[in-house]
Amino acid sequence: MTESEVLTSVQNGVGRITLNRPKALNALNRVMCEIMTAALLTWRDNSSVRSVLIDHAGERGFCAGGDIRMIAESGAGNAVEAKAFFLTEYRLNHLMVVYPKPIVAVMDGIVMGGGVGISDPAPFRIVTERTLYAMPETGIGLFPDVGGGWFLPRMPGETGIWLALTGARIKAPDCLPLEVGTHFIPAEQIEAFKVALIQSDETPGAVVARFAADPGTSPLDPYRAVIDRCFAFDTVEAIFAALENERTDWAQGQLKMLRTKSPQSLKVSLRQMRAGARMTTFAEVMAMEFALGGRIVQTHDFQEGVRSVIVDKDNDPHWDPATLAGVTEAMLDAFFAPLPADEAWTPLA
């Protein structure tokens, strides 16, 4: 009998969700999202469940994203399956954001894309020295979804915009100051922490505090002022110009990285960030991202990005439009247009 890709149980009042697809770095598919949603709904009104723990099998990845191959194959056709996945995944993300009980996410390993969507909503986000966090979507012609339009622009300064556009990868010493994680616990202590969380009658916050340690100095700290200065603009062209004017090796490195990304994705992602910053509820952001996602997966750039990075692995995508100038405001307006009421995203009842 094949073991489930998500394991759920209740242990001493703690609802435990374990992602159990380690060979795929626990990448999410629709069934996994459905299992997680069902468990959370069952526990929500169960007074014997006090808190929720989300962890994962294997040491390499908490969750490396969603099922990108399926999404691309669906997007190459009518995108029905991709939209069904987004509907389910985004409803799970929203459910976690509004969940009435404390959630602890143990982000011990790779945390990308969909993994961000099921960890960022948790009030307690535990990182270790093995944590590697990124939203790399602009490199495959996509955009940082799963609530990226809510979480990223609310990070300190312009760091979330920098992460969204560059796809930069950060580790534990940067995760805490950027508010990606709330606490650092050494990997060798994680199992003991989970045992204590389950066996103790203390609140999750009290248990976390007992195990929390110092992750060390932030490598990004010397560049925070540059990030805030250069990524504060509302056009990608202005961000490029600001980085060019810095004339430092670090700024030029960021510019070089940005020039490898899909121009369309860069402009879509920046508009998403600025629009999300103005929205007052997470549900508004989910509705925007659902409309956007269903359209973007059918574009040349997403199909080409997946081919280049995931299928052929030649890392030589041919973007179309090939330049920022080729991505017009009219194109962006079409991507961001609201869906008809009968097609729009809605949260769970």
Can you give a write-up of this model?
With 349 residues, the chain is α/β, with parallel strands linked by helices. The protein is 45% helix and 11% strand. The chain is built from 16 helices and 9 strands. The strands form 2 sheets. The chain has a 6-stranded mixed β-sheet, with helices on both faces. Strand 1 (6-11) and strand 2 form a beta hairpin. The longest helix is centred in the N-terminal third of the chain and has 18 residues, at 80-97. It is globular. The two termini are 34 Å apart. 47% of the residues are buried. The model has no long low-confidence stretch (mean pLDDT 97).
Q: How many helical elements? A: 16
Report the count of strand segments.
9
The gyration radius over C-alpha positions equals: 20 Å
N-to-C CA distance: 34 Å
Proportion in β-strands: 5-15%
- Shape, principal axes of CA atoms: globular
